[in-house]
Every structure is written in C-alpha cells, then in structure tokens.
Fold:
Amino acid sequence: MHKLARLDHAHVWHPFTQMRDWLQREPIVITAGEGAVLRDVRGREYLDANSSIWTNLHGHNHPTLNAALKRQLGKIAHSSALGFANEPASVLAAELVKLVNPKRSASSPRRLHKVFFSDDGSTAMEVALKLAYEFTRRARGPKAKTRFLSLAGAYHGDTVGAVSLGHIELFHKAYSGLLFKTDQVMSPYCYRCPFNKAKPERADAREYRKCNWECVGKVEAKCATACKRGNDYAAFVFEPLMQGAAGMIPQPDGWLKRVTDIARGHGALLVADEVMTGFGRTGTVFASHAEGVQPDFLALAKGLTGGYLPMAATLTTQRVFDAFLGEYAEFKTFFHGHSYTGNQLGAAVALASHDLLTGKASIAMRMRLEEDLRRELKSLWSLRNVGDVRQVGLVAGVELVRNWRTREPFAIGARAGIRVCEAMAQRGVLTRPIGNVVVLMPPYCTTAAQLRRMVGALYEAVEEVLGSAASARSNDRRASGSSKLVH
Ligand code: PMP
Structure:
C-alpha cells in the first residue's frame, strides 16, 4: 500500500463513509488534476464524472483560476470580515447581486440585494434558516409561528438546522433528538408517482392516467391547513428544478412556479437552495430563473468558487436586511458569523470563475455538453437494470432497479449503486451514487470523447455488476426518455 494511503487509513475519517469498508482496500489518493481528469499517486488517470461532488465547474487546474488565486495570494490570503471589509468580497457581492437579478430593476422589493458570506452549503442554508426565522418573528410578532415546510427527500446540509430542514430518513433518524420539527410535503418524483401517473414502461401502454398536478395539490392543501390552524409557514424551502441528494429528482416544467406561488400566497417566505443547481448546472445560470421564481433567500456554495475553495453566500432582500437595523442596544444585530467569512482567496477565485461562466465560450461549451449528455445517455435505456434516466441541463441521475418492468428497487443493503461506481472506477471513471442512483455531473470542459467514456463506463459497470445484459426490449422503452412528465 502506498505510504499516503497508509496515513489515510491510520488517521482520516471520511464523510458519509462506512469506514470498515473503506479500510478494506487501498484508497485512490488524488495528487493532481487537469480539466476533467484526476491523477492519483500511482500515476493512474480518472475522469471526474461528478465534478468532485458537484463543485467543479470549468475543470481542474484552470489557468485563469490559478492566475486569479496567485494574484490574490501576492496581496493577502485572508483578513476577517468581523470588523473589516475587503476588496474581492465587496466586488464579488456586487457581481452576485447582478448575476441573480437579471431582470430586476434596482428598486424592485424582490431584488436580492444583500449578500451574507459563509463557508459551505450547510452554513449558507443555516444563515437562510436563521434569517427567515428571525425576520418572521419581527414581522409577525414574537409569538408568531415559525414552522418551515420543505420537500420529501430533501437534503440541505449536515449542520443541525440544515438537517432539520431535510427529510432523508437515514440521516434524520440518528439525530432526531437534536433536531427541531419541520413539515414535509410531497415532491414530484414522477418515476415513483404514488398516483400511478408516471409514464409507463411500454410506449404503447395505456395503464397510466393523466396527471392533474396531484403533487401541487398536496402543497396547496398543506399550506391551507396550516393557515387554517393559525400555523402559517415562515418559509417554504426547496431546491429548484432538481432535487439533488434526494436522488436527482427532476420537477415537471411548471411545478416550481406553481408551488412557489401557492406558498407565497399563503404568506411563506421562499428559500431556494441552489447549492447544487446554481452556476449553470441545470442549463440557466440559476435554476430558479428557468421558471421566473424570485426567492426571498438564495443559498449558494459548491460552484461559487468554480470548485476551488470552500465559500458560500446567502442572498436576501433589502426588506429582510432592514428588519435587522436598529440602535446598538436594541440588539437587532444578526448574531451569526464564521472566522473565514468573506475569505479573500475564495472571493478572488469566485470572481474569476464568474467571468468564465458568463463568457461566450463557457455558454457554448455548456450547450454542447448538455446535448452530448442527452445523446450518450440514450444507450442506457437498453439495460435491464436501468429503471430511469433523468437529466436536467448538465446533471444526470440513473436509477438502478432490480426489474425495469416493475420498477422494483434494489434493497439499499445490496449496495447496487456503490458496486456499480466501484466498477466504473476500475474503468477510470469516478463518481458517487445516491443510494441506487448513479450521478453524472461532468465539469463543463468535458469533451465529447470523455463524456462517451463516462457513460460507457457506467454501461459496462451495470452489465458487469448487475448482470444487466442489454435487452432486446429496448423498443418498449419510453421513446422520450426520462419519467419526468411533460404536460
Ligand atoms: N444543499 C444542497 C442542495 C446540497 O446538495 C448540499 C451538499 N450536497 C448542501 C446543501 C450542503 O452543502 P455542503 O456539503 O457544502 O455543506
């Protein structure tokens, strides 16, 4: 075993990892990267098929980002935002405000005008949660109900507040005693629609009924019942267009606009978690823009720095900001902050990343990659153990099932997703599953040939691990692809 792998085994505790399994094999030790390629300590090369857990945008070792970092490093790496302003954070805040308000005039009350920096997706959500809570109490009075509504299967991070907003049983159960109560409402998981309205497996089947937005009705009913009981929600929390850690679950076109209108109509603030969807992943720069939804809070992290450094931002309106203004001794201050808030290296590289993101070359690259992905993914439909292939923009989730006809899932203990990803790693492609869903989220610089290798590795891995020979029934599969309904 390489000496770095030995050190890792001796001392490092890895996130979301059963360490007994981890200790049974030599880990891949990454030492370098370039573009979509990662290199390990033994000189082997891999494709980074999940953008290093959804963070990297433009590729590794990008000359423009490296130069921006070095320039900033020549000045200063960090000074505290507690007491001082700094150059890159101030410029970045102004840039973010421009980027998230494409069509809003400076005077619109919905304009996201203020930026609170923090460190990662969880802290960005924690900030949104605390601000929404306190703002509601100030607006409605200290006795106001401050309950939150979020989506079934939601994941918003690992800090206690963020976990409370989430509804993944596995994570919730362990900490239930620590968490505060939030409500959940059905999310539009079309593939497993409980109203049996998902698209059928056979193109000529008649067994499904027309979708009447039953899932939207659930949101309406939840909000209306809460209001009737005098329990109005402080905020509705959601990931727009696609729920990530829930299993890459896309929302049918129009769902987002409908449910956010309903929540807002019942007095709830809107908290958009674009930690995964932001910065071009879903096609538009921000997923909320695709349906013209303007939240009251917007959480950003992961891609904010192009995947270089941990940095996050929570944006909100002037109205929320003003509620925290007062005489010093009134203590209306937002009592929250972190040591590295507004870090200069992070802000400098984020600015360079935004320049790339909004440039013509990156836009063209993303459009090409989205089409390449759509084309390559089609091959997976022929596999017996592929139940659903879901794509939104540059993000794909491939749901593995025991039987594609019945959609029977693998038991989580069978580790189908993990085993398939291990077999992909053997083929030089790295990604991580969410349960039985294999994620593909390539960096924007991924070439057509690299993408073909990523999808090809997934195809072969499914065949090898699950014995999923390509079926002659491929003509039966839904011609239009994903189970996501189009009305
Ligand atoms: N929100 C969403 C939608 C996420 O996908 C994640 C992480 N996968 C988080 C929040 C938490 O982000 P972090 O891991 O940076 O704390």
About this structure: Residues 120-122, 125, 155-157, 239, 244-245, 273, 275-276, 301 surround 4'-deoxy-4'-aminopyridoxal-5'-phosphate (CB under 6 Å). The two ends are 55 Å apart (CA to CA).
